[in-house]
Design brief:
Length: 171
Amino acid sequence: MSYSEYSFSLPLRFLTIMPIIFISLITMVFTIMKARLSRGTAAYRNVNNTAGAPYADSIQLTQMLFSALVESLAEAEGHMRRKAFEKKAGSLNRASKILLGLQDSLDFDKGQELAINLSEIYDYSRRRLFQASLKNDLAAIQEVRGLISEIDSAWQLLPSVLNNPSSAIAS
């Protein structure tokens, strides 16, 4: 499979597995990130947002990481538009470190297919950000931001679904 076919098929695969990801997140949230939570915490410390991290549970920590990731991607877009390339590189570097922290925290034994799919999405996102940095490709950053925003939305909904499981079945 050529790179262009792979890069086109991965977002389509993502869209087809999104319901599976959401359901799996609900059932496995307390197991996926516990074992390697310290790596996620270290990644979050690297982005200078540690005020809430010591007191956060795994869901809150993941939500904070995704918020910081989306923020970094938005900053990178703005820096690229303003041609502030050094700042763009810093924002993309921060986003890549957060993606690595998220990827390192996956538990493949417990998460199985979900962990594999998320790992592939994080790896694809890091490669696209690297390309975006090299080629000043705004569309690549926007693509990654869209993928990450979908996963972030699932994490943001998770606490309410866990508190009211009947609403997850209804929707």
